[in-house]
Design a protein that fits this description.
This protein has helices at 39-46, 55-66, 82-90, 100-109, 126-134, 144-157, 196-206, 223-237, 268-283, 295-298, 336-340, 434-438; strands at residues 4-10, 15-21, 33-34, 37-38, 50-54, 71-75, 94-97, 116-120, 138-141, 163-169, 191-192, 209-214, 245-247, 288-291, 302-315, 321-327, 346-349, 356-362, 374-375, 378-379, 382-385, 392-395, 417-421, 424-429. Strands 5, 15, 16, 17, 18, 21, 22, 23 and 24 form a nine-stranded mixed sheet that branches. The radius of gyration is 23 Å and the shape is elongated. The protein has two domains: 34-54 and 301-438, Beta Barrel (Lyase, Ornithine Decarboxylase, Chain A, domain 1); 67-293, TIM Barrel. The chain is of the alpha/beta class. It is built from twelve helices and 24 strands. Helix 6 (144-157) packs parallel to helix 7 and helix 8 (223-237) packs parallel to helix 9 (268-283). The longest helix is centred in the middle third of the chain and has 16 residues, at 268-283.
Length: 443
Protein backbone atom coordinates (compact mmCIF):
# COMPACT_ATOMS: atom_id res chain seq x y z
CA UNK A 1 0.00 0.00 0.00
CA UNK A 2 1.20 3.45 -0.80
CA UNK A 3 1.56 5.49 2.37
CA UNK A 4 1.38 9.27 2.60
CA UNK A 5 3.27 10.80 5.50
CA UNK A 6 2.32 14.42 6.13
CA UNK A 7 4.40 16.69 8.37
CA UNK A 8 1.91 18.85 10.26
CA UNK A 9 2.39 21.65 12.74
CA UNK A 10 1.27 20.69 16.23
CA UNK A 11 0.44 24.10 17.69
CA UNK A 12 0.05 22.76 21.23
CA UNK A 13 3.46 21.14 21.23
CA UNK A 14 5.18 23.82 19.14
CA UNK A 15 7.01 21.11 17.24
CA UNK A 16 6.51 18.82 14.28
CA UNK A 17 4.66 15.57 14.60
CA UNK A 18 4.09 12.93 11.98
CA UNK A 19 0.55 12.30 10.79
CA UNK A 20 0.19 8.81 9.37
CA UNK A 21 -2.62 8.48 6.83
CA UNK A 22 -3.98 4.95 6.10
CA UNK A 23 -0.90 3.32 7.55
CA UNK A 24 -1.67 -0.14 8.95
CA UNK A 25 2.00 -1.10 8.47
CA UNK A 26 3.19 2.15 10.09
CA UNK A 27 5.58 3.04 7.28
CA UNK A 28 6.84 6.63 7.31
CA UNK A 29 7.06 7.58 3.67
CA UNK A 30 6.27 10.44 1.34
CA UNK A 31 6.50 14.15 1.97
CA UNK A 32 7.07 15.82 5.32
CA UNK A 33 6.86 19.60 5.33
CA UNK A 34 8.15 22.55 7.32
CA UNK A 35 5.31 25.00 6.98
CA UNK A 36 4.55 24.88 3.23
CA UNK A 37 7.94 23.63 2.05
CA UNK A 38 8.78 19.95 1.55
CA UNK A 39 11.78 18.78 3.54
CA UNK A 40 13.02 16.77 0.58
CA UNK A 41 13.05 19.94 -1.53
CA UNK A 42 15.05 21.77 1.15
CA UNK A 43 17.60 18.94 1.31
CA UNK A 44 17.88 18.85 -2.48
CA UNK A 45 18.32 22.63 -2.82
CA UNK A 46 20.76 23.28 0.03
CA UNK A 47 22.37 19.88 0.55
CA UNK A 48 22.72 18.07 3.86
CA UNK A 49 23.23 18.36 6.73
CA UNK A 50 21.26 21.61 6.98
CA UNK A 51 19.48 23.42 9.82
CA UNK A 52 16.00 24.73 9.08
CA UNK A 53 14.01 27.14 11.28
CA UNK A 54 10.26 27.65 11.12
CA UNK A 55 9.35 31.30 11.65
CA UNK A 56 5.73 30.36 12.39
CA UNK A 57 6.71 28.13 15.31
CA UNK A 58 9.19 30.75 16.54
CA UNK A 59 6.50 33.44 16.56
CA UNK A 60 4.13 31.18 18.45
CA UNK A 61 6.70 30.46 21.11
CA UNK A 62 7.53 34.17 21.46
CA UNK A 63 3.83 34.96 21.95
CA UNK A 64 3.50 32.17 24.51
CA UNK A 65 6.48 33.31 26.57
CA UNK A 66 5.90 37.07 26.39
CA UNK A 67 2.62 36.64 28.26
CA UNK A 68 4.42 35.36 31.34
CA UNK A 69 6.32 38.41 32.60
CA UNK A 70 6.49 42.19 32.14
CA UNK A 71 10.11 41.96 30.94
CA UNK A 72 11.16 39.15 28.62
CA UNK A 73 14.73 38.48 27.54
CA UNK A 74 16.05 35.89 25.14
CA UNK A 75 19.14 33.94 26.23
CA UNK A 76 20.75 34.24 22.82
CA UNK A 77 23.40 31.59 23.48
CA UNK A 78 20.68 29.08 22.51
CA UNK A 79 20.65 30.29 18.91
CA UNK A 80 22.16 33.55 17.67
CA UNK A 81 21.03 33.35 14.03
CA UNK A 82 20.45 36.95 12.95
CA UNK A 83 16.93 36.27 11.65
CA UNK A 84 15.94 34.80 15.00
CA UNK A 85 17.46 37.80 16.79
CA UNK A 86 15.57 40.21 14.55
CA UNK A 87 12.32 38.34 15.17
CA UNK A 88 12.91 38.82 18.90
CA UNK A 89 13.69 42.50 18.38
CA UNK A 90 10.58 43.12 16.29
CA UNK A 91 8.40 41.51 18.96
CA UNK A 92 9.78 43.43 21.92
CA UNK A 93 12.01 40.75 23.44
CA UNK A 94 15.23 41.97 25.06
CA UNK A 95 18.57 40.13 25.14
CA UNK A 96 20.58 38.21 27.69
CA UNK A 97 24.15 37.87 26.40
CA UNK A 98 26.93 35.83 28.00
CA UNK A 99 29.94 37.15 26.12
CA UNK A 100 31.01 40.51 24.72
CA UNK A 101 30.86 39.00 21.24
CA UNK A 102 27.21 38.13 21.88
CA UNK A 103 26.65 41.71 23.04
CA UNK A 104 28.22 43.01 19.84
CA UNK A 105 26.25 40.53 17.76
CA UNK A 106 23.01 41.75 19.33
CA UNK A 107 23.98 45.37 18.67
CA UNK A 108 24.64 44.56 15.01
CA UNK A 109 21.23 42.88 14.80
CA UNK A 110 19.64 46.18 15.82
CA UNK A 111 19.26 45.97 19.59
CA UNK A 112 20.10 49.07 21.63
CA UNK A 113 22.46 48.97 24.58
CA UNK A 114 19.47 49.40 26.91
CA UNK A 115 18.00 46.17 25.50
CA UNK A 116 21.00 44.06 26.49
CA UNK A 117 22.13 42.54 29.77
CA UNK A 118 25.58 40.94 29.93
CA UNK A 119 25.53 37.99 32.33
CA UNK A 120 28.75 36.23 33.27
CA UNK A 121 30.86 34.99 36.17
CA UNK A 122 33.96 36.72 34.82
CA UNK A 123 35.00 39.34 32.34
CA UNK A 124 36.84 37.21 29.78
CA UNK A 125 39.65 39.80 29.69
CA UNK A 126 40.43 43.37 30.76
CA UNK A 127 38.93 44.85 27.61
CA UNK A 128 35.50 43.35 28.34
CA UNK A 129 34.76 45.47 31.39
CA UNK A 130 36.04 48.56 29.56
CA UNK A 131 33.70 47.82 26.66
CA UNK A 132 30.71 47.46 28.99
CA UNK A 133 31.47 50.72 30.78
CA UNK A 134 32.13 52.66 27.58
CA UNK A 135 28.96 51.36 25.88
CA UNK A 136 26.68 51.45 28.93
CA UNK A 137 26.03 47.70 28.89
CA UNK A 138 24.25 46.57 32.03
CA UNK A 139 26.32 43.88 33.77
CA UNK A 140 24.92 40.98 35.77
CA UNK A 141 27.87 39.81 37.90
CA UNK A 142 28.07 36.17 38.95
CA UNK A 143 31.09 36.29 41.29
CA UNK A 144 32.51 38.60 43.91
CA UNK A 145 35.60 38.95 41.74
CA UNK A 146 33.54 40.24 38.83
CA UNK A 147 31.83 42.81 41.08
CA UNK A 148 35.23 43.98 42.28
CA UNK A 149 36.67 44.16 38.77
CA UNK A 150 33.71 46.23 37.59
CA UNK A 151 34.00 48.57 40.59
CA UNK A 152 37.74 49.01 40.19
CA UNK A 153 37.42 49.76 36.48
CA UNK A 154 34.62 52.26 37.10
CA UNK A 155 36.70 53.99 39.74
CA UNK A 156 39.79 54.10 37.50
CA UNK A 157 38.06 55.37 34.37
CA UNK A 158 35.11 57.32 35.80
CA UNK A 159 33.18 56.18 32.73
CA UNK A 160 29.93 54.21 32.73
CA UNK A 161 27.16 53.40 35.16
CA UNK A 162 27.51 52.52 38.83
CA UNK A 163 24.45 50.27 38.56
CA UNK A 164 24.97 46.52 38.44
CA UNK A 165 22.97 43.36 38.84
CA UNK A 166 24.15 40.34 40.79
CA UNK A 167 23.55 36.70 39.97
CA UNK A 168 22.86 34.70 43.14
CA UNK A 169 23.40 30.98 43.63
CA UNK A 170 20.49 30.03 45.91
CA UNK A 171 22.06 26.77 47.04
CA UNK A 172 20.07 24.48 44.75
CA UNK A 173 19.67 23.82 41.06
CA UNK A 174 17.78 21.86 38.42
CA UNK A 175 18.65 20.19 35.15
CA UNK A 176 17.97 17.16 32.99
CA UNK A 177 21.73 16.49 33.25
CA UNK A 178 24.35 17.42 35.85
CA UNK A 179 26.00 19.38 33.05
CA UNK A 180 22.96 21.65 32.72
CA UNK A 181 22.48 22.24 36.45
CA UNK A 182 23.56 25.81 37.22
CA UNK A 183 22.77 26.07 40.93
CA UNK A 184 23.93 24.46 44.15
CA UNK A 185 27.28 23.81 45.78
CA UNK A 186 28.78 22.09 42.72
CA UNK A 187 27.88 24.84 40.26
CA UNK A 188 30.43 27.49 39.35
CA UNK A 189 27.68 30.00 38.60
CA UNK A 190 26.53 32.83 40.82
CA UNK A 191 27.43 34.46 44.11
CA UNK A 192 26.75 32.03 46.94
CA UNK A 193 23.65 33.14 48.82
CA UNK A 194 25.55 33.32 52.12
CA UNK A 195 28.04 35.80 50.64
CA UNK A 196 25.68 38.70 50.04
CA UNK A 197 27.25 40.72 52.88
CA UNK A 198 30.51 40.57 50.91
CA UNK A 199 28.64 42.05 47.94
CA UNK A 200 27.43 44.91 50.14
CA UNK A 201 31.02 45.55 51.26
CA UNK A 202 32.23 45.82 47.64
CA UNK A 203 29.31 48.06 46.73
CA UNK A 204 30.27 50.50 49.47
CA UNK A 205 33.96 50.28 48.59
CA UNK A 206 33.47 51.23 44.94
CA UNK A 207 30.33 53.34 45.12
CA UNK A 208 28.23 50.82 43.21
CA UNK A 209 24.47 50.32 43.28
CA UNK A 210 22.85 46.89 43.16
CA UNK A 211 19.85 47.75 41.01
CA UNK A 212 19.11 44.19 39.94
CA UNK A 213 19.15 40.66 41.33
CA UNK A 214 19.04 37.49 39.26
CA UNK A 215 19.22 33.73 39.49
CA UNK A 216 19.19 30.87 37.04
CA UNK A 217 19.28 27.32 38.35
CA UNK A 218 19.39 25.37 35.09
CA UNK A 219 17.11 23.74 32.57
CA UNK A 220 14.53 21.16 33.52
CA UNK A 221 12.71 22.48 36.58
CA UNK A 222 8.93 22.25 36.79
CA UNK A 223 6.50 25.02 37.73
CA UNK A 224 6.43 23.96 41.40
CA UNK A 225 10.21 24.23 41.56
CA UNK A 226 10.18 27.56 39.76
CA UNK A 227 7.57 28.85 42.20
CA UNK A 228 9.72 27.94 45.18
CA UNK A 229 12.96 29.30 43.76
CA UNK A 230 11.39 32.61 42.73
CA UNK A 231 10.27 33.01 46.33
CA UNK A 232 13.88 32.66 47.42
CA UNK A 233 15.01 35.37 45.02
CA UNK A 234 12.36 37.76 46.32
CA UNK A 235 13.79 37.35 49.82
CA UNK A 236 17.32 37.97 48.55
CA UNK A 237 16.13 41.06 46.72
CA UNK A 238 14.80 42.56 49.93
CA UNK A 239 18.40 42.89 51.16
CA UNK A 240 19.18 45.55 48.53
CA UNK A 241 17.19 48.76 48.94
CA UNK A 242 17.98 50.15 45.46
CA UNK A 243 16.64 47.19 43.52
CA UNK A 244 14.79 48.13 40.33
CA UNK A 245 14.71 44.79 38.50
CA UNK A 246 14.36 41.18 39.55
CA UNK A 247 15.24 38.59 36.91
CA UNK A 248 13.99 35.08 37.63
CA UNK A 249 16.15 33.53 34.92
CA UNK A 250 15.24 30.88 32.38
CA UNK A 251 14.98 27.13 32.71
CA UNK A 252 11.41 26.86 31.44
CA UNK A 253 10.73 23.17 30.74
CA UNK A 254 10.47 21.90 27.17
CA UNK A 255 9.34 18.44 26.06
CA UNK A 256 11.38 17.13 23.12
CA UNK A 257 9.32 13.96 22.63
CA UNK A 258 6.42 14.80 20.26
CA UNK A 259 4.51 11.75 21.52
CA UNK A 260 4.28 13.40 24.95
CA UNK A 261 2.26 16.52 25.81
CA UNK A 262 4.25 19.73 25.73
CA UNK A 263 5.11 21.16 29.14
CA UNK A 264 2.46 23.70 30.17
CA UNK A 265 4.11 26.94 31.31
CA UNK A 266 1.01 29.13 31.40
CA UNK A 267 0.84 28.85 35.19
CA UNK A 268 4.16 30.65 35.52
CA UNK A 269 2.43 33.99 34.87
CA UNK A 270 0.52 33.76 38.13
CA UNK A 271 3.78 32.99 39.94
CA UNK A 272 5.50 36.06 38.49
CA UNK A 273 2.46 38.26 39.21
CA UNK A 274 2.47 37.12 42.84
CA UNK A 275 6.17 37.83 43.21
CA UNK A 276 5.70 41.31 41.71
CA UNK A 277 2.98 42.13 44.26
CA UNK A 278 5.18 41.01 47.16
CA UNK A 279 8.06 43.11 45.88
CA UNK A 280 5.86 46.17 45.41
CA UNK A 281 4.48 45.85 48.93
CA UNK A 282 7.99 45.61 50.40
CA UNK A 283 9.65 48.40 48.39
CA UNK A 284 6.64 50.64 48.02
CA UNK A 285 7.18 50.86 44.26
CA UNK A 286 6.88 48.71 41.16
CA UNK A 287 9.80 46.35 40.55
CA UNK A 288 10.37 45.24 36.96
CA UNK A 289 10.12 41.44 37.02
CA UNK A 290 11.62 39.52 34.14
CA UNK A 291 12.56 36.11 32.77
CA UNK A 292 15.20 35.05 30.23
CA UNK A 293 14.44 31.70 28.57
CA UNK A 294 16.55 30.42 25.72
CA UNK A 295 15.67 26.82 24.91
CA UNK A 296 11.90 27.24 25.28
CA UNK A 297 11.94 30.06 22.72
CA UNK A 298 13.71 28.23 19.91
CA UNK A 299 14.02 24.47 20.46
CA UNK A 300 10.83 23.59 18.62
CA UNK A 301 11.39 25.85 15.62
CA UNK A 302 14.52 24.00 14.48
CA UNK A 303 14.88 20.89 12.34
CA UNK A 304 18.13 19.27 11.23
CA UNK A 305 17.97 17.47 7.91
CA UNK A 306 20.56 14.87 6.97
CA UNK A 307 21.03 11.82 4.80
CA UNK A 308 21.32 8.10 5.52
CA UNK A 309 24.71 7.06 4.16
CA UNK A 310 25.09 3.41 5.15
CA UNK A 311 23.71 0.55 7.24
CA UNK A 312 25.78 -1.59 9.58
CA UNK A 313 25.21 -4.33 12.16
CA UNK A 314 26.98 -6.28 14.87
CA UNK A 315 26.07 -9.14 17.23
CA UNK A 316 26.24 -9.00 21.01
CA UNK A 317 27.60 -11.75 23.29
CA UNK A 318 24.25 -13.53 23.20
CA UNK A 319 24.05 -13.47 19.43
CA UNK A 320 21.47 -10.69 19.22
CA UNK A 321 21.81 -8.55 16.13
CA UNK A 322 22.35 -4.80 16.64
CA UNK A 323 21.46 -2.63 13.65
CA UNK A 324 23.02 0.77 13.00
CA UNK A 325 21.86 3.49 10.64
CA UNK A 326 24.83 5.69 9.77
CA UNK A 327 24.01 9.23 8.70
CA UNK A 328 25.99 12.31 7.70
CA UNK A 329 24.87 14.12 10.90
CA UNK A 330 27.63 13.98 13.50
CA UNK A 331 28.21 15.47 16.91
CA UNK A 332 30.15 18.26 15.22
CA UNK A 333 26.74 19.28 13.86
CA UNK A 334 24.53 18.34 16.84
CA UNK A 335 26.40 17.92 20.11
CA UNK A 336 23.51 17.54 22.57
CA UNK A 337 23.04 13.74 22.39
CA UNK A 338 26.73 13.09 22.98
CA UNK A 339 27.22 15.86 25.56
CA UNK A 340 24.05 15.35 27.60
CA UNK A 341 22.46 12.11 26.38
CA UNK A 342 19.67 14.33 25.08
CA UNK A 343 16.61 12.99 23.27
CA UNK A 344 15.70 14.31 19.82
CA UNK A 345 12.81 12.92 17.76
CA UNK A 346 13.97 11.23 14.56
CA UNK A 347 12.08 10.39 11.37
CA UNK A 348 13.14 9.02 8.00
CA UNK A 349 11.79 10.11 4.62
CA UNK A 350 12.00 7.50 1.89
CA UNK A 351 9.92 6.04 -0.91
CA UNK A 352 10.04 2.47 0.40
CA UNK A 353 10.94 2.42 4.06
CA UNK A 354 11.18 -1.00 5.67
CA UNK A 355 9.23 -2.26 8.68
CA UNK A 356 9.85 -0.80 12.13
CA UNK A 357 12.61 -2.38 14.16
CA UNK A 358 15.17 -1.48 16.80
CA UNK A 359 17.77 0.84 15.29
CA UNK A 360 20.70 2.83 16.66
CA UNK A 361 21.08 6.01 14.64
CA UNK A 362 24.63 7.37 14.52
CA UNK A 363 26.87 9.83 12.72
CA UNK A 364 30.03 9.73 10.60
CA UNK A 365 32.52 11.13 13.12
CA UNK A 366 35.52 9.12 14.27
CA UNK A 367 34.32 8.79 17.89
CA UNK A 368 32.31 5.97 19.47
CA UNK A 369 30.14 8.55 21.20
CA UNK A 370 28.87 9.89 17.85
CA UNK A 371 25.39 8.44 18.35
CA UNK A 372 22.12 10.33 17.93
CA UNK A 373 19.94 7.87 19.85
CA UNK A 374 21.17 7.91 23.44
CA UNK A 375 19.76 7.57 26.93
CA UNK A 376 21.71 8.28 30.09
CA UNK A 377 24.63 9.08 27.79
CA UNK A 378 24.71 5.53 26.36
CA UNK A 379 23.70 4.29 22.87
CA UNK A 380 20.16 2.93 22.85
CA UNK A 381 18.05 1.50 20.05
CA UNK A 382 14.89 3.26 18.97
CA UNK A 383 11.89 1.72 17.20
CA UNK A 384 12.05 3.18 13.69
CA UNK A 385 11.34 2.05 10.13
CA UNK A 386 14.40 0.74 8.32
CA UNK A 387 15.67 3.30 5.79
CA UNK A 388 17.93 2.90 2.80
CA UNK A 389 21.13 4.80 1.95
CA UNK A 390 20.09 8.05 0.31
CA UNK A 391 16.93 8.46 2.40
CA UNK A 392 16.51 11.64 4.42
CA UNK A 393 16.89 11.69 8.19
CA UNK A 394 14.88 14.33 10.06
CA UNK A 395 15.95 15.39 13.55
CA UNK A 396 13.45 17.52 15.46
CA UNK A 397 13.83 19.90 18.40
CA UNK A 398 17.05 21.23 16.87
CA UNK A 399 16.58 24.96 17.36
CA UNK A 400 18.36 25.37 20.68
CA UNK A 401 22.02 24.66 21.53
CA UNK A 402 22.42 22.92 18.19
CA UNK A 403 24.08 24.96 15.44
CA UNK A 404 25.35 27.27 18.19
CA UNK A 405 27.45 24.41 19.63
CA UNK A 406 28.67 22.97 16.34
CA UNK A 407 32.37 22.73 15.50
CA UNK A 408 34.97 21.97 12.84
CA UNK A 409 35.95 18.66 14.46
CA UNK A 410 37.36 16.22 11.88
CA UNK A 411 37.78 19.35 9.71
CA UNK A 412 34.07 19.24 8.97
CA UNK A 413 32.61 22.54 7.72
CA UNK A 414 29.93 24.42 9.65
CA UNK A 415 26.65 23.69 7.90
CA UNK A 416 24.03 26.01 6.40
CA UNK A 417 21.04 27.53 8.16
CA UNK A 418 17.76 28.09 6.36
CA UNK A 419 14.58 29.85 7.46
CA UNK A 420 11.11 28.89 6.27
CA UNK A 421 8.29 31.41 6.44
CA UNK A 422 5.15 30.06 4.79
CA UNK A 423 6.13 29.35 1.19
CA UNK A 424 9.40 31.25 1.50
CA UNK A 425 12.64 29.32 2.04
CA UNK A 426 15.84 31.36 2.39
CA UNK A 427 19.41 30.40 3.26
CA UNK A 428 20.76 32.59 6.06
CA UNK A 429 24.18 30.96 6.47
CA UNK A 430 26.17 29.30 3.71
CA UNK A 431 28.07 26.06 4.12
CA UNK A 432 31.72 26.54 5.01
CA UNK A 433 34.44 25.49 2.62
CA UNK A 434 37.88 24.17 3.52
CA UNK A 435 39.26 27.60 2.59
CA UNK A 436 36.92 29.14 5.20
CA UNK A 437 38.22 26.74 7.83
CA UNK A 438 41.87 27.40 6.97
CA UNK A 439 41.52 31.15 6.47
CA UNK A 440 42.99 32.17 9.83
CA UNK A 441 45.74 29.56 9.98
CA UNK A 442 49.31 30.70 9.35
CA UNK A 443 51.50 28.81 6.92
Amino acid sequence: MSIENKGVLDSANLCYKTEIVCAPNLRWEGSMKIENVKMRDIAKKFGTPVYVYSMEILRRSISEIKQLAPVTRYAMKANSNVHILKEMLNRGVKIDAVSIFEVQRALRAGFKADDICFTSDVFFNDDDVKFCLANNIYCNCGTLGMVEEYGAALKATDVGSAKISIRINPGEGAGHSKKTNTGGAYSKHGIWHQNLDAVKHLVRKYGLTVSGVHLHIGSGGNIEHLERITGKLVEFAKQFEDVETVNFGGGLPYQYDPDQPQEDISGYKAVIDTRAKILKKHFGRDIACGIEPGRRFVAGCGTLLGEVRSLNHTFDDEGKRIDYVLTNVGFCHLLRPMAYGSFHPIWFIGDELGPEQDLIVAGPICESGDVLTQKNEEPVARRLPMPKPGDCVVIGGAGAYAHAMSSNYNSQPLIPEVIVDGDRCVQTRSRQTLDDILMKETK
